[in-house]
Specification:
By secondary structure, chain A is mainly alpha-helical. Chain A has 5 helices and 2 strands. Chain B is mainly α. Chain B has 2 domains: 84 residues, Rna Polymerase Sigma Factor, Chain: A (Orthogonal Bundle); 88 residues, Arc Repressor Mutant, subunit A, CATH 1.10.10.10. The chains are: A mainly alpha, B mainly alpha. Chains A and B meet through helix 1, helix 2, helix 4 and helix 5 of A and helix 2, helix 3, helix 5, helix 7 and helix 8 of B.
Amino acid sequence: MDSERLIAGLWCSEVLADLSDYFDDQLPPERRAQIESHLRGCAVCERFGGQFSAAVTALRRTLTEPDPLDQGASARLRERLRRELK
Amino acid sequence: MSVHAEPEDDVALLRCAESGDREAFDRFVERHQAAVFRFVRTLGPDPALSEDVLQETFLAAWRRARTFRGESSVRTWLFTIARNATARQYRRRVGEPERQDVASLDDLGVAAGWGTDSDPEATAIQQEQRAAVVRALEALDAEDRRVLVLRDLEQLNGEDAAAVLGLTLAALKSRLHRARLRFAAHLRREIADGF
């Protein structure tokens, strides 16, 4: 990023590095508060944090359930189990 | 015909399977086969081998039902079996070194839109979202998909996902973050391309 800034004692790149832990609520309270201060003062990081969160949330919400196993694979699995588990 | 009354959960189904109840095990398989197959597809490149691994996983689950102690989730246990089954199927590849991810976080971030003004996601995610998400996920390499499937789709906690993949928690977190950034970048491109 061209215009990296130091806000609330954190560089933008440090916020970027911690985004997943922030999203997963895995940061110590002090670090979380520091990042939130940075986000309040940095529109660029705030926007990107929102985009990152939206992307991961979209992944989680839209693909929570796996596609059903296709009928052929399911039939072959059942046949193998029937043959070998006696 | 099962001699057991309607099992209510996975552990109960496994306990029935342990005592030889095939009907209970079939229901257990039915519950988990799609999730196991989704994970298995991230473990190796060969679709035919993926199906073999799926079958080997449930054969092993039947044989090892008594070893499940409920210390982790059933999915975590099944995914660990699947990973081991895959290692056997791809035995020749096992000794190969893992990919070294040398991309800088800054580069991954910029590709995902870090430091830019545009915000195409907000409106576009609402349109044809699933197809775009699927394409963005499929565009990742298997190692990235593997960690996203475990953490974001199956929602295993970090410790369990790390155990399934044989990683330290720190390594798992690092891979997860990079995989999420790459996924966000692919999703951004999907959206910029108008799906």
